[in-house]
Write a structure and sequence with these properties.
Layout: E1 2-4, H1 7-13, E2 22-27, H2 33-45, E3 48-53, H3 63-68, H4 73-80, E4 89-91, H5 95-98, H6 117-120, H7 124-139, E5 143-147, H8 151-164, E6 169-173, H9 193-198, H10 200-211, H11 218-230, E7 235-244, E8 263-271, E9 274-281
Parallel strand pairs: 1-4, 2-3, 2-5, 3-4, 5-6
Antiparallel strand pairs: 7-8, 8-9
Helix pairs in contact: 7-8, 10-11
Bound molecules: pantoate.
Pantoate binds near residues 26, 28 and 150.
């Protein structure tokens, strides 16, 4: 694999005829098995793959979170090297490469801006849209692969692609989990030992709630999830919502759920001082 850090080098490396279809896996580094699954999937589908590693400052609404975000470039390259092929590329730009001038663009995503993460992390998705559109402009991928853990981000990116008319195909990959069910995330490494030991409760609880959809009403399930997770010391639920997978509109009663749609239970939890998200499909 080749490691490049400027858009010019990247464009040179992706201009040869063996570069299509070009696959793209954008990341913020601190890679784990979930990312590696995305990269393997991209390599299976594409003749050349670009993996970007860039911690995007514009998507952090909390400066401490940005400061503490894990940066592990050497380990990341070691993890990627057995997976990427000789012609594949790791793109490690700096801030100037991505934002030669301050990005003042403001995006609008309709209802996606009014629910869940958007309410709890103001400005977050505008920053995601800025960086993803900029990365798409530089990399010009045919296919881009994202993980389903960031459920709302995926919906925002699909909407961004729709609005901009970009021809890139967005593929989503299932969540990869630890043995106890915890969704893999770069932030997991920031959990204290005692919190990490208990963190499997998040997936266990949302799975149980999903399986109870035909027996209990939605307010009950929301309150069940909150109570069950908060029994673990140091855990507090920011939200648990059941939403459709297109507009992400929260449903408040089972009778609002239509057979032709898909629904997901989405959660954000403060685990110690680390914020984790997860989701699960609600079977109808
Ligand atoms: O999901 C992430 O890691 C980031 O939000 C992304 C898509 C790489 C943009 O910075």
């Amino acid at each position: 694999m080749k490691v490049v850090s400027t858009a010019e080098e990247l464009q040179k490396a992706t201009s040869s005829p063996d570069s299509t279809p070009l696959g793209f896996v954008p990341t913020m580094g601190a890679l784990h098995r979930g990312h590696i699954t995305l990269v393997r999937n991209a390599a299976g589908l594409c003749r050349k793959v670009v993996v970007s590693i860039y911690v995007n400052p514009t998507q952090f609404n909390d400066q401490d979170d940005l400061k503490n975000y894990p940066r592990t470039l050497d380990d990341d390259l070691q993890l990627l090297s057995p997976v990427l092929r000789e012609n594949d590329i790791v793109f490690t730009p700096d801030d100037k490469e991505i934002y030669p001038v301050k990005d003042r663009r403001v995006f609008h995503f309709g209802n996606l801006e009014n629910v869940m993460e958007a309410l709890h992390r103001p400005g977050h998705f505008n920053g995601v849209a800025q960086v993803v559109s900029r990365l798409f402009e530089i990399v010009k991928p045919d296919i881009a692969i994202f993980g389903q853990k960031d459920f709302q981000q995926l919906a925002v990116i699909k909407e961004l692609v729709r609005q901009t008319g970009n021809k890139v195909k967005i593929i989503d990959n299932p969540i990869v989990r630890e043995d106890d069910g915890l969704a893999m995330s770069s932030r997991n490494r920031l959990l204290s030992q005692s919190i990490r030991k208990k963190a499997g409760i998040i997936y266990k609880t949302i799975s149980a709630a999903a399986s109870m959809i035909n027996e209990h009403d939605i307010p009950y399930l929301i309150s069940y999830v909150k109570k069950n997770i908060e029994r673990a010391e140091g855990f507090s639920v920011e939200y648990f919502e059941i939403v459709d997978d297109i507009e992400l509109k929260p449903v408040s009663a089972r009778c609002e759920m239509k057979k032709e749609n898909k629904y997901f239970g989405c959660i954000a939890v403060k685990a110690g001082n680390i914020r984790l998200i997860d989701n699960i499909e609600i079977p109808l």
